[in-house]
UniProtKB/TrEMBL annotation:
It comes from Fictibacillus fluitans. Pfam families: SelA. Converts seryl-tRNA(Sec) to selenocysteinyl-tRNA(Sec) required for selenoprotein biosynthesis. It catalyses: L-seryl-tRNA(Sec) + selenophosphate + H(+) = L-selenocysteinyl-tRNA(Sec) + phosphate. The gene is selA. This is L-seryl-tRNA(Sec) selenium transferase. It comes from the Bacteria. Belongs to the SelA family. Pathway: Aminoacyl-tRNA biosynthesis; selenocysteinyl-tRNA(Sec) biosynthesis; selenocysteinyl-tRNA(Sec) from L-seryl-tRNA(Sec) (bacterial route): step 1/1. InterPro entries: PyrdxlP-dep_Trfase, PyrdxlP-dep_Trfase_major, SelA-like, SelA_trans. Its main location: cytoplasm.
Length: 459
């Protein structure tokens, strides 16, 4: 086919567009690959006679260049990119969950760009332990005797079970055999750890005598799992962790362990938001061990935090899994700065997760009015009352009152508009309902607002 001879070379496309030295931080090798892919696609469409546009050397060159330019507009040098979360879901798992505070971000930057005392004792001038970097901070905040950090809370659960209950029985209520995102099940992780699951009670009702009747010489642990992503209501009965502690009087070597899941160091209940148990109270009750996430309600980096009695934490630190599951200096820096804010309630409210959850409805309404005014008249906007979600499998029963901007464009349907917003240099993620794009300002801060307006108005 003669037309195939008119297809441009990779060099011709690069030279015509001055891409032979890279663009927007994207290496020229990547751009070359994109150019070759577009030429191959054009060749295939010509062979299949599916190319319906005007044909010729100049037209083919422009067609390839246009397709690659579009990729350059959508893609940066990095696959992981900043997005604006306009969905109102505070802990949006698909969008990276918690945003770090300014203090945490600054501390990460300092640690990343410098040598640190990660495993060096400045006092002794000898090798130190990375556990020491964060342990005192966790103990001060929660009131525990000792603590350590692993790379997420699933790892924390696995480590506790494997290190302290392998080939032994762990008693759990049937109503607490939870599954969280990614098909992570307590029963499955227990099987992988080598611990033997002993279920007691029923789905909706478990009594203290169910545990008492099941304890035997092979029992190592009583485990309580906070059902953070669902609620069972109605004819129910659950055994509290404090009640489980009474069983240690006859069985002093039993470990009473509670997986708090999301975990909370902030008094949300004082703000009338949910009934999430505070970590400090579980520690104060005398539990041997508790574990919780760092990147959910704590508002820090992805991490699993294990806190409790020194006797058990010291065993965990010496276990081989401690090295397998350990975190790096950047995680420790982010977590240390985040926890430091919890010494004062006002400082804790500067953590983005806390700030977004407790935002006043009136403040959100003012922001919604401001955004609406700037989007008009290009967009038809209506402000309605709505509800935001905490997200991340946390506080499923909580609906946070908010104001929603419902935006429509005269030339684009909602689905197309949503796609075009995702293709902007800073992608904007909205919710589409009833052929309208919904913007919830709860999760849009000042910097995000500027990027959101730029994305909408550029269309």
């Amino acid at each position: 086919m003669d037309e195939l001879r008119l297809l441009p070379s990779v060099h011709a496309v690069l030279q015509q567009n001055e891409w032979d030295r890279g663009e927007k931080g994207i290496p020229v090798s990547v751009i070359k690959k994109w150019v070759q892919e577009e030429i191959d696609a054009l060749r295939l469409s010509l062979i299949n006679d599916s190319y319906k546009k005007e044909r010729g050397r100049d037209q083919f060159l422009e067609a390839v260049s246009t397709s690659v330019r579009k990729k350059l507009e959508i893609n940066g040098a990095y696959a992981l990119s900043k997005v604006v979360n306009a969905t109102g879901v505070v802990l949006h798992t698909n969008l990276g969950r918690a945003r770090l505070s300014a203090k945490a971000t600054a501390h990460v930057l300092e640690a990343a760009s410098s040598y640190t005392n990660l495993e060096y004792s400045l006092e002794q001038g000898t090798r130190g332990s990375r556990h020491d970097i964060i342990e005192k901070q966790i103990c001060d905040i929660t009131g525990c005797e000792a603590a350590m950090v692993v790379n997420n809370n699933a790892a924390a659960v696995y480590m506790v079970l494997s290190a302290l209950a392998k080939q032994k029985e762990v008693i759990v209520s049937r109503g607490e055999l939870v599954e969280i995102g990614g098909s992570f099940r307590i029963s499955s992780i227990m099987e992988e750890s080598g611990a033997y699951l002993k279920e007691v009670g029923t789905t909706n009702r478990t009594h203290l005598h169910d545990y008492t009747a099941t304890i035997n010489e092979g029992t190592a642990m009583l485990m309580k799992v906070h059902t953070s992503n669902f609620k069972i209501t109605g004819f129910t009965k659950a055994v509290s962790s404090q009640e489980l502690l009474t069983l240690k009087e006859q069985n002093p070597e039993l470990i009473v362990y509670e997986d708090l899941g999301s975990g909370s160091l902030f008094p949300f209940t004082r703000y009338g938001i949910g009934d999430e148990p505070e970590i400090q109270r579980s520690v104060a009750a005398g539990l041997d061990l508790v574990s919780f996430s760092g990147d959910k309600l704590i508002g820090g980096p992805q991490a699993g935090i294990i806190a409790g009695k020194s006797k058990w934490i010291n065993q965990l630190k010496k276990h081989q899994l401690a090295r397998v599951l350990r975190v790096d200096k950047l995680t420790l820096a982010a977590l240390e700065a985040t926890l430091l804010s919890y010494h004062q309630e006002d400082a804790a409210r500067e953590i983005p997760v806390i700030r977004d959850i407790v935002r006043r409805k009136e403040e959100i309404r003012d922001q919604a009015e401001r955004i609406k005014e700037k989007l008009s008249p290009m967009y038809e906007c209506h402000i309605t009352e709505g509800h935001s979600m905490v997200g991340g499998g946390t506080m499923p029963e909580v609906s946070l009152p908010t104001y929603i901007i419902e935006a429509t464009h005269p030339d684009f349907g909602a689905a197309e508009l949503s796609r075009k917003l995702r293709e902007q240099p800073v992608p904007v993620i909205v919710t589409v309902k009833h052929d309208r794009c919904h913007i919830d300002p709860r999760t849009v801060d000042e910097a995000d607002e500027a990027a959101l307006l730029s994305a909408f108005l550029s269309l």
